[in-house]
């Protein structure tokens, strides 16, 4: 999927909003542990959930775990982002009967050019104030990319945190 296709998909999703619907936008500027810029994850609130549009660069080729974490902070080890975002008290993993966390998202895959261009939709998150699953609670939220693919089981086994971005509202 190229950037033009991704942009078209995001525009199509926004145009599908009913009259009077509010499309709220946010972005996470992604950076590696060494501070290298790694692209963006854009967020759009839709009537049915949140659309994430990824334009990520400088990843190793192959699969990577991709999650929303509970705190809007990044530090050199990205531990400040905390655990997976989980306001409902679920367990981890799409293949776990007691899961998934609200912040569990599908793995992403970098191509031979070390890029990821994709759209991901989730109905387990919100950008609306006062909603239990809002990304914008008192301490915010962050996006984390892991070194390995998520197992989708109770234990993620996705490896080190290799990129982080704090989710911020666009003004």
Can you walk through the features of this model?
- By secondary structure, this protein is mainly beta.
- It has one domain: Superoxide dismutase, copper/zinc binding domain (Immunoglobulin-like), CATH 2.60.40.
- Helices cover 8% and strands 33% of the residues.
- The protein is built from 1 helix and 9 strands, in the order H-E-E-E-E-E-E-E-E-E.
- The strands form 2 sheets. Strands 5-8-9-1-2-3-7 form a 7-stranded antiparallel beta sheet, with helices on one face. A two-stranded antiparallel ribbon has the order 4-6.
- A hairpin with a 2-residue loop joins strand 2 and strand 3.
- The protein is globular, with a radius of gyration of 15 Å.
What is the number of independent domains?
Answer: 1
Strand content of the residues, in percent?
A: 25-35%
Order of helices and strands: HEEEEEEEEE
Main sheet: strands, sense, barrel: 7 strands, antiparallel
- Helix- and strand-based class? mainly beta
The outline comes out as globular
CATH class: Mainly Beta
Name of the CATH architecture:
Sandwich
Number of strands: 9
Summary of the model, kept short:
This protein is mainly beta and 171 residues long. Helix content is 8%, strand content 33%.
In terms of topology, how is this protein built?
Elements: H1 3-15, E1 25-32, E2 37-46, E3 49-56, E4 62-64, E5 66-69, E6 108-110, E7 116-122, E8 142-146, E9 161-169
Antiparallel strand pairs: 1-2, 1-9, 2-3, 3-7, 4-6, 5-8, 8-9
Key terms:
about 170 residues; mainly beta; Immunoglobulin-like; two-stranded antiparallel sheet; 1 helix; 9 strands; about 10% helix; globular
């Amino acid at each position: 999927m190229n950037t033009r296709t991704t942009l078209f998909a995001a525009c199509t999703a926004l145009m599908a909003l009913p009259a009077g619907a509010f499309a709220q936008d946010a972005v996470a500027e992604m950076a590696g542990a060494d501070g290298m810029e790694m692209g963006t994850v854009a967020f759009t609130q839709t009537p049915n959930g949140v659309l994430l549009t990824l334009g990520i660069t400088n990843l190793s080729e192959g699969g990577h775990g991709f999650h929303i974490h509970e705190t809007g902070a990044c530090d050199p080890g990205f531990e400040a982002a905390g655990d997976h975002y989980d306001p409902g008290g679920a367990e981890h993993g799409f293949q776990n009967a007691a899961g998934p966390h609200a912040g569990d998202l599908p793995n992403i895959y970098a191509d031979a050019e070390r890029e990821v261009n994709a759209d991901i939709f989730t109905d387990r998150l919100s950008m609306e104030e006062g909603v239990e699953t809002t990304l914008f609670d008192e301490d915010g939220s962050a996006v984390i990319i892991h070194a390995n693919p998520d197992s989708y089981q109770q234990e993620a086994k996705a490896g080190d945190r290799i990129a982080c971005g704090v989710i911020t509202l666009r003004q």
